[in-house]
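Consider this today:
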Amino acid sequence: MEQLKNTPLFAEHEKLKALMAPFGGWHMPIQYEGIIAEHRWCREKAALFDICHMGEFHFKGDIVASGLEDVFTFSVKSIPVGRSRYGFLLNEKGGVIDDLIVFRLAEDEVMVVVNAATIAKDFAAISARLSGGEFRDISAATGKLDLQGPLSREVLTGVVGPEIAAIPYFKFIRTKVLGVDAIVSRTGYTGELGYEVFLPAEKSAELWNRLLADERVKPAGLGARDVLRLEMGYSLYGSDIDEATTPIEAGLEAFVNFDKAFVGKEALLKQRAEGVTRMKVAFDVTSRRSPRHDYGIFFEGERVGTVTSGVFSPMLGCGIGMGYVAPAVATLGAPLTISHEKVSMEATVVELPFYRGGSLRS
């Protein structure tokens, strides 16, 4: 069996008596007080998440001459310094090796933030496509804490300084946090106003405890994070997208720039011309029941797809989910039945996001 890794905050989670479980090869906190309570705290105040398991790569060199410009589905050279961009690393068939965010640190310097379970795979794939520049995996040396919620700006300003208050969505600054070099960004995964702090791993526990000393802040685990992201309709790698799924099938074509070269482009152009055989849809359930991963999706008695993500939404008061279905069924308002063994629930195809009341762009 694979040896699970611990984040620099493992001892802090144990002190808080968090429910721990494996996730992406790591011991991670699923909940502290409870998923619903932590979800509500994030929507109303400020929740603190340990995201130290995520991967970070550092590149320095000529972005075009090195081949980095052709690695992702978006242009790296056109990202202004101080901004970040979301998109994909694809395989030759157009499948998603990973979804990620690139931060433009300087004209010749970027940081790539990737999912925890795909760090080694991503690093190998990107390295193989580069012909120059210095490319390093800095994941082990980098800590990452996410403070999310409508009060996060007030809280973090008191700890870091007033300069973070002016950071717009998908921008970042390089600053000092607890006396060390750090990056503070606003990308988020919850639909609320929030910040991500990248700093040396050995300072993670100090920042964690400093933030939790504020009564407006409570810790939140991956359980609440999953409900929060699904209410926004954000895809989870390994569930909603993977190497067998293309951005077109996932309804994420907006993050693909067909005006530039990238691995997998020809496969996507072919798929776009011929049409897809399945499409991701969002649906809500007419009860408080939760659809679950791998439940069947039925239309007029015939199985037409599979659920990839599903939870009970505290904000909507019903079950919500996403999954892949035959294109003919992927129309707003289409009536569906979600079924698994003796469990059955009626559902309707809806538009994303499920929840629209967040403070994300405050």
Notes: The radius of gyration is 20 Å.
